Amino acid sequence: MTVNPYPLGLRLAGLPVVVVGGGAVATRRVPALLDAGADVLLVTPEISPALRAHADAGRLRWAARRFVPEDLDGAWLVQVAIDDPIAAASVSVAAAERRIFCVRADDREAATAWTPAVTRHGPVTVGVLGGGDPHRAMTVRDAIRTLLQARKGTLLTPPVEEGPLVNTGTARGGEVALVGAGPGDAELITLKGWRLLTEADVVVADRLVPGLLLDELRSGVELVDASKIPYGPSRTQEEINRILVDRALAGSVVVRLKGGDPYVFGRGGEELLACAEAGVPVTVVPGVTSSIAAPAAAGVPVTHRGVAHEFTVVSGHVAPDSPDSLVRWEALAGLRGTLVILMGLKNLPAITATLLAHGRPADTPAAVVQEATTGAQRIVRSTLGEVAAAVADAGLRPPAVVVLGDVVTVLDL
Ligand code: SAH
Q1: 161: in domain
Q2: How confident is the model at residue 72 (pLDDT cuts 50, 70, 90)?
Q3: Residues 295 and 404 in one domain
Q4: What's the predicted TM-score (pTM) here?
Q5: What EC class is this (predicted)?
Q6: Same-domain pairing of 270 and 200
Q7: Summary mean pLDDT of the chain
Q8: Is the pLDDT at 82 greater than 60, yes or no?
Q9: Pocket of ligand 1 (CB under 6 A)
Q10: Does residue 169 have a pLDDT over 60?
Q11: Which residue from 116, 152, 160, 202 could staple onto 222, CB 3.0 to 4.6 Å apart?
Q12: Which domain holds residue 221?
């Protein structure tokens, strides 16, 4: 009968840990040790490129030779990641002599410690031991990961603090996260953004935020619709700022969920300043911006070797001849590279006319992508000279991204 292992969470910060081997197993094991702050000594004559990058960056020490027992002097843990059973056994012997736990990738029975299959969710780490069967451990781990991803908000929210409250600068430890939701496909939010979203007490969401993300919020969350419909009535930015600050000062975890990336024409900076002025801690989680994702969804890479060595992202919401315009369209007309225009549909005739008037060739390829990465995505392909009319003919509506440049046709077969 096998005896059950004793689960333990090792706090390795600053402690010497030896890894023997430099192949695929070591490459997979080392990052978690570095993440735990371990002082890693890697002993191996041959090293994978990824491990060499860690060594070159000074994140670990590399002894480029075979293992000798003295490598374990002073170590707290050793991981054996080599196939040769005799060499591996010699590490086990040296570890046992020094009373150091020894993980063996080659022989679980000979090991004095097992590494669990792991899934990490912010501060929570779940480790699964499969009773000697790594596949069973991974299967159970996958099931737990799915469960936690689906219901993380309810399961992983930190318990209410007990004991005296620590004054963190806010009334009860509220905070704001400015989270980029990505361009439209609900799967294009980052892992971090998704975790914060599912942990939120209050979600303040823009109109462009993928609806499916909101569909999966936990019950009880307060959802504030901060819709700012283009060219229509809008709740003022001041009011949004006030909601963020008020809720955080009242102790809530607030997620400000914004389409694409929070800082790309997203007024994220204003919201950050408002929170900072009120003493509310803010986390910014970047998002996949439509300025890159919408062209990609239309088969357009914003750069391509030998074709475009630059891409410029501009807002077209102010007409080129307006005194309020901050964009030097005549200068953009002189660039060779990719030009990406957001919020540019209404002013597209004036924008294309200005670019043409200042010398951008009329046959420059153009594409317009409406509601990119969603089920409603529509694409119009044209040229700079004709794109404004083509958009009108097709009846394209915001939100849409216009992309101009030779990259538009570069992937055409
Ligand atoms: N912060 C956002 C941009 C906000 S400005 C980002 O990084 O993507 C709003 C403009 O973004 C829209 O008018 C449109 O030009 C563009 N946009 C956002 N999502 C889009 C989508 N799914 N498809 C096409 N354009 C989109």
Answers
A1: no
A2: very high
A3: yes
A4: 0.78
A5: transferase
A6: yes
A7: 90
A8: yes
A9: 183-184, 208, 258-261, 264-266, 289-291, 294, 342-343, 369-373, 398-401
A10: no
A11: 202
A12: 175-288
